[in-house]
Design a protein that fits this description.
The structure holds two protein chains of two kinds. By secondary structure, chain A is mainly alpha-helical. Chain A is 69% helix and 0% strand. The two termini of chain B are 18 Å apart. Chain B has 14 helices and 14 strands. The chains are: A mainly alpha, B alpha/beta.
């Protein structure tokens, strides 16, 4: 009996339970959201390959579209000036899929379970995620902008116009990241979130005015293409970058972005409150 | 033990009549639970028994369809935020952010418990030291082993000094060595007075760590008691004495009566389920003696039989397993239950782990029982 007796380590006394009432108030939504955002932001420089992949695709698109389609696509203005705003908008929107993938990853790894067991506002988890994903998007955008300038794209409107167009794209992408977060919570796996996140964005962004003139499309596609919110966004951005009047497009695009954000923030937060690893 | 204990006589966890169905499946079908302060309750059952659902209800992740649950007297459905401030949850998967370092993971959870940054950091360092993770503190978790992740995971649950710690299958999927280190860690916490509710598929784990074991199957509590109580009522360990066909069985039984903790039965070799007896001569009989603990009993039996002057060909001891316990209570094996219920992605790995654990169990039993004797 004595031979097998183990030496026991010291008991770990954690001290008295720290019983504190959870804080309430809107300020904690912001503080917790920021804490969550830093979780993701800390990771960005540690995974540079993610950023590399996030920039290769848009560079490829710029080069492919500009040099492959330039001669054969009929548009009212120079094709570079026409297509670059569309590629910008598409790329910034595509990046919203990272939100869904990240949320699905957290869910499948049990991190959502842990976060939901903490005395914090549930929406902070989602706000932190969506806000931090903007940062990656900014990096991608900066690289894209440099490439676009290198092949001859120029802002032809006011600085304010260019800033407004870029802001509009980012608002749209932010709105979409709430849709993607809902998808990520619903499908449960990273692979499924990746597919489900991209699949609907292809028709949405291609059946639009981003790459071609809508009036040249087959007739049954035209009504969708004309009223597609992505067409409205692209038209608004193209007008603002090129310095001609955007008309109501900018406001309609802004309304779409805000509307999607509000609706999907509510839906996603509600879904989050019931989400748990299977 | 602590100031909070002295002033708070309510049970740390109390659940009454928890019921939760997912479609047709009754995950919880009227579960009552109670964990008193500084105690460890082990929720034991196969995959799909409802253990994880019970933990999720108690930690506010899932709302029960019926029944009530309280943490320190706080209703988890009515006041989830206040309940959350008092619990630490270590779920079935090590919920660590692989992109952050161990230290950052700890600090992050501390911040979300609304501890001041300095306190979260200080506490994080303290826990890294206690949990033997100092050397890896500033390394990204991606490179951690399964056991290190689990230790970090448990540390994260403890950063805000919760009133109750929930451990959902803390060693599932770990290799035997990591399993051992996580066990030792939990034991240290338990001796330090951490109130714990742990779920497990493994009898030896519940046996080793829990003050009280609650056995659940198909969402119902089917037995509860201390490990010894369960073993006694549910069959416990057995000694099998193999004798020749013409042996005087009566005298064997009489010689061993004093050692048994229940009725001694006699059967043919092979008739007794799962016998480890080496005899395969046709017609040999096996005298099955239920005992509380099988350790050190074989020499005692041999001496008793020698003293009585009866001949025998083999004496073997066998410990009751989760399968025995389950079979005794439910009439079906634990493995069957996992096949019919809960088709989740973890099913496979869980089963593989169960196998690994079974294989690793034999070697650990001696030491495990020694510990218990000293308890």
């Amino acid at each position: 009996m004595t031979a097998v007796t183990e030496t026991r380590a010291d008991p770990i006394d954690l001290g008295p339970a720290r019983i504190e009432e959870p804080p309430t108030g809107f300020i904690w939504v912001i503080k917790d959201s920021w804490t969550e955002a830093t979780r993701h932001l800390r990771a960005v420089p540690r995974n540079p390959e993610l950023l590399v992949f996030a920039t290769i695709q848009p560079i490829m698109f710029i080069v492919l579209f500009v040099y492959v389609f330039r001669g054969s696509v009929q548009v009212p203005i120079d094709y570079v000036q026409y297509v670059i705003p569309g590629i910008f908008a598409q790329t910034v929107l595509f990046n919203s899929a990272f939100t869904g993938v990240g949320v699905a990853d957290d869910l499948s790894k049990g991190i959502i379970d842990r976060l939901r067991s903490l005395p914090m506002y549930p929406s902070a988890v989602l706000i932190g995620r969506t806000v931090s994903d903007i940062v990656r998007n900014v990096v991608t955008f900066a690289v894209m902008l440099a490439v676009a300038f290198a092949i001859g794209f120029r802002f032809q409107g006011t600085v304010m116009g260019a800033v407004a167009a870029t802001g509009l794209m980012f608002l749209f992408s932010y709105a979409f990241s709430w849709i993607q977060a809902l998808i990520g919570l619903s499908v449960g796996s990273v692979e499924a979130a990746n597919s489900a996140g991209f699949i609907w964005m292809f028709p949405l962004t291609f059946v639009s005015s981003a790459f071609v003139d809508v009036s040249h499309m087959v007739s049954w596609l035209r009504p969708f293409a004309r009223n597609n919110p992505f067409t409205i966004l692209t038209n608004a951005c193209r007008a603002l970058y090129n310095g001609y009047p955007a008309g109501s497009d900018a406001w309609v695009a802004l309304a779409w972005a805000l509307g999607i954000t509000v609706v999907f923030a509510l839906l996603t937060t509600r879904k989050f409150a019931q989400s748990t690893s299977s | 033990m602590t100031t909070s204990t002295a002033t708070d006589a309510r049970p740390a966890v109390l659940a009454e009549g928890l019921y939760k169905a997912f479609g047709e499946t009754k995950a919880l079908d009227g579960v009552d639970l109670r964990v008193d302060r500084a105690k460890v309750v082990g929720l034991l059952g196969p995959n799909g028994a409802g253990k994880t659902t019970a933990v999720k209800v108690l930690t506010t992740l899932i709302r029960p369809d019926r029944g009530r649950a309280f943490i320190d007297g706080i209703d988890v459905v009515a006041e989830p935020m206040r309940a959350k401030a008092r619990i630490g949850l270590t779920g079935q998967y090590a919920a660590v952010d692989e992109r952050l370092t161990g230290f950052e993971n700890l600090e992050h959870v501390g911040r979300l418990f609304h501890m001041p940054r300095s306190e979260a950091r200080e506490r994080g360092r303290e826990l890294l030291e206690r949990f033997d993770l100092v050397e890896s503190a500033d390394r990204v978790v991606k490179g951690y082993s399964g056991g290190m992740r689990r230790r970090l995971d448990i540390a994260m649950s403890l950063i805000a000094r919760p009133s109750v710690l929930f451990l959902d299958e803390p060693t599932t999927g770990l290799d035997p060595r990591s399993r051992q280190s996580v066990w030792e860690l939990i034991e240290e916490l338990v001796r330090g007075g951490t109130t714990t509710l742990l779920t497990t598929q493994y009898l030896d784990e519940a046996d080793r760590l829990a003050d009280e074991i609650v056995v659940i199957d198909h969402g119902r509590v089917i037995a509860r008691g201390t490990s010894d109580e369960l073993k006694t009522t549910l069959g416990g360990d057995v000694l099998e004495v193999t004798v020749a066909p013409d042996a005087d069985v009566e005298r064997v039984v009489a010689a061993l009566a004093g050692l048994a903790c229940g009725e001694i039965t006699v059967g043919a070799v092979g008739a007794v389920g799962g016998t480890g007896s080496t005899a395969d001569v046709h017609g040999d009989k096996v005298v099955v003696v239920p005992v509380l603990k099988v350790e050190h009993m074989v020499p005692v039996v041999v001496r008793a039989l020698d003293a009585a002057g009866v001949a025998f060909s083999d004496v073997a001891g066998r410990q009751s397993t989760l399968d025995d316990v389950f079979f005794a209570i439910t009439g079906h094996a634990a493995e069957d239950a996992s096949d019919t219920a809960e088709t989740s992605p973890k099913g496979k790995s869980g089963k593989a782990a169960a196998k690994a654990a079974k294989q690793g169990k034999q070697g650990k039993q001696t030491e495990q029982m020694t510990k218990e004797a000293g308890r």
